[in-house]
Write a structure and sequence with these properties.
Blueprint: H1 13-18, H2 23-40, E1 44-47, E2 51-54, E3 57-60, E4 66-69, E5 72-76, E6 81-84, H3 93-99, E7 103-105, E8 108-111, H4 119-135
Antiparallel strand pairs: 1-2, 2-5, 3-4, 5-6, 6-8, 7-8
Amino acid sequence: MAELKTKLTDASVTTFLNRVEGGEKRADSFEIVKLIQQVTKQEPKMWGANIVGFGSMRLKYASGRELDWMVIGFSPRKQNLTLYIPGSLEQYADLLAKLGKHKKGGGCLYIRKLEDVNIPVLKQLIKTSVKAATAK
């Protein structure tokens, strides 16, 4: 089995975010990290080279495979600001309907820019999803 590339590292979150291209995307990235940190009360840590993660939990798959993973994560990708939301986003349809302009796929929430979304709703989505993930 191949070794997992996305694992906790000692890399600097600030250094990573300062390398984000585009002033607005960089500023939005810092804001999202600050927002998630406020909600989770967890310090941001780099997971792999491109994901800022908060907290950690042990995932156990039906196959018996186990791995350490972040509770919630964020990455400023080229096309979108991507939030890695624990669980299926389908269970948060009511919040997503009030969120504003976004796309979703699997456990990923894609936002073009922070001004496109309702920040209090985003905070509630983060809070609710993290609470559900850590209750398991």
